[in-house]
Amino acid sequence: MGRVRLSRFNIASLAFGLAFLYLPIVILVIYSFNGSRLVTVWGGWSTRWYAEFFNDQAMLAAAWMSFRVALASATAATVIGTLAAVALARGGHFRGRTLFSGMLYAPLVMPEVITGLSLLLLFVALNAERGFWTVTIAHTTLTMCFVAVVVQSRLGALDRSLEEAAMDLGCTPLRAFVAVTLPLIAPAIAAGWMLAFTLSLDDLVIASFTTGPGSATLPIRIYSEVRLGVKPEINAICTLIIAAVTLLIIVASLASKLSNARADSAAPM
């Protein structure tokens, strides 16, 4: 294969695109160490705003609420989305398949404002107290379709002869799924869970419709603070989230490389 030579225009376009995406994040991280109270005025290097965040009980409570909602909704969405993907990939052309898949994938194309308002009307009709569980249910509704898409695509690319071989050897369909199929689709399930967790942690619109007093998530809290002016403390919070996401990406990459290395070493010569 010959080398692909990039023109100056391509290099400049690539550099501009990367700068457009990542330069604001770099500036945010730098200004999170700004010692001045004014976001646009540099006052020297300082970690005072990180200390301010860890002393802000309201912000910490919102962060803990977001983490709990994301953990619960991502787990529920992964279970429901995986079962739905198995039904679509292995269930054949059952009656109501088109309606079922349409209802499952509707949140992918439906505006979040409509989804949030619909769920709000549902909770009001049920006279449900809005709080942790209503936000969790709403986020589960939003994210399970993403899990189903990821898992279904993996099931579609899976060789079904492996399951058939397991059943020929005496396994029941459930046993074959648990022993053969589930380990093979585990990376897709994990990817779906992480995607659902990220979407839940980042959601603002649907959470603002379904939350109640004392159950504000971190995006809602940050949005309410930003309306009064951007504080350096918000830069510190965003930097901590970026650091956590970066750490997770590094760990996942290392785990993937380690798994591939073990598979290569275990493969017969």
From TrEMBL:
Key words, A-Z: Cell membrane, Membrane, Transmembrane, Transmembrane helix, Transport
Domain of life: Bacteria
Domain ABC transmembrane type-1: 63-252
Main location: membrane
GO term, biological process aspect, one: transmembrane transport
Entry's localization field: Cell membrane
Membrane topology: Multi-pass membrane protein
InterPro entries: Bact_Polyamine_Transport, MetI-like, MetI-like_sf
Transmembrane residue ranges: 12-33, 69-91, 103-126, 132-151, 172-195, 234-255
Gene Ontology terms: cellular component: plasma membrane
Family assignment from sequence similarity: Belongs to the binding-protein-dependent transport system permease family. CysTW subfamily.
Protein name: Putrescine transport system permease protein
Origin species: Rhodopseudomonas rhenobacensis
